[in-house]
Amino acid sequence: MTGVREPQQERSRTTRRRLIEAALDSFGERGWHGVTVAVIAERAGVSRGAAQHHFPTRETLVAAAVDLLGEAQIDELRAQAAGLPSGSSRIERVVEMVLNLYTGPLFRAALQLWAVAATDEALRDVLVPLEARVGREAHRVTVELLSVDESRAGVRELVQATLDLARGLGLANLLTDDTRRRRQIVREWAQTLELRLAGTSEL
Amino acid sequence: MTGVREPQQERSRTTRRRLIEAALDSFGERGWHGVTVAVIAERAGVSRGAAQHHFPTRETLVAAAVDLLGEAQIDELRAQAAGLPSGSSRIERVVEMVLNLYTGPLFRAALQLWAVAATDEALRDVLVPLEARVGREAHRVTVELLSVDESRAGVRELVQATLDLARGLGLANLLTDDTRRRRQIVREWAQTLELRLAGTSEL
């Protein structure tokens, strides 16, 4: 494509994406209060004017970032799941994937936003509906990966508990590396789900 | 006691306590960056000099606050547990208490600190050993309240998972009121623990 001008629309998409990624890195490393749209623009190598054209405020950047995060997580879950065996070893692998969901830099960035949103109504109004949507999607994919029947009593709550546990494990991994302890919990949780979901799974 | 001077030691303890409580309220409401020792002193009705005598930095205040939080939580767990029936309805009540542990203003304050500590090494060095101690204590009390035998395989991990789940539910309750959903999870988790811990409990 040398010598061919990148189409305007494509350029615009690339710029947005670079700004969102720079925003996530910045919030994760420096927190909400240390970061402005100008700081993010500089990190992304985008002019301040262009940045403000795409995202007039930090809140609009956050909304786009949470969307991207949510989608990226779901995509990754699906990609990992595609390589999984069927049969009884599958549950432990799925549990491991789900319980590792919130242990990376994306969760770190999200946590900074949640902490701020707890004391900032404008940001909370942006985050709450987005989080609800991302949460529903994570739930749907987990049900699908576990191949369980949600119409059975208790199944919905066990899937929810699995995702809540994953977030709790994300917190536990925030300040120290909790990998070893988490591995034991994955094993125990997988056995628990196998026992409780026996007969509800279509594996 | 009118006319009798409050002993120096007692006065000093009261001042510390007032500063710690003002610090927790302030961090919970305004986050770490919005709060200085001077702001906390004013809120506590304590002179800036006295505040700095007790707590030269925000970090020292945080250490004292986390200690107090941890103790207050454990004391509350024990107090609530004292009124519980024995027998099979006990597990659900204990699970309810534990899964509600992180849904109040104390967790809100702690989360502000965690978020900052994720990007601030000095605060992290203060928090990590304190959190480890508070975590161990919460674990010990939960084992005691459930009357389970930790030497049995898997019991330790199930208790840990219960506390991790509790923290995840705390996060889920941060921006919206999650009480109704949590109630369903409590019921399901209590049944799960009963099943998994069958034979390990001395109830």
UniProtKB/TrEMBL annotation, chains A, B:
Entries under InterPro entries matching the protein: Homeodomain-like_sf, HTH-type_TetR-like_transc_reg, HTH_TetR
DNA-binding interval(s): 36-55
Domain HTH tetR-type: 13-73
Highest taxon in the source lineage: Bacteria
Pfam families on file: TetR_N
Keyword list, A-Z: DNA-binding
Keyword DNA-binding among UniProt keywords: yes
Name by which UniProt lists this protein: TetR family transcriptional regulator
